[in-house]
Specification:
YaeB-like fold
């Protein structure tokens, strides 16, 4: 089972979300801790993955050696992929 960690910037983004969106993201992350590769899709041209949570997207990295899912970024699907 994988452990979930947030970058500081992702933690700030999470706290700015509504309680409904926070619970949606938590339920998605709880679902993927057993088999993250079954649910996460790799972003093209990157080592990061994405997971859908309604209209929100969670950008994450899966660190196999340490069994960690590192949340890099959270946000609305319209602007999450912009640099």
């Amino acid at each position: 089972m994988y452990r979930i960690e947030f970058l500081d910037s992702a933690q700030k983004e999470f706290k700015q979300l509504t309680k409904e969106n926070q619970s949606r993201i938590i339920s998605v992350l709880e679902r993927i801790v057993v088999r993250p590769h079954s649910f996460a899709l790799r972003l093209s041209g990157s080592k990061a993955y994405r997971v859908r949570a309604g209209k929100l997207r969670v950008i994450l990295d899966i660190i196999e050696e340490k069994q960690i899912i590192l949340v890099l970024k959270l946000g609305n699907r319209e602007n999450i992929y912009l640099p």
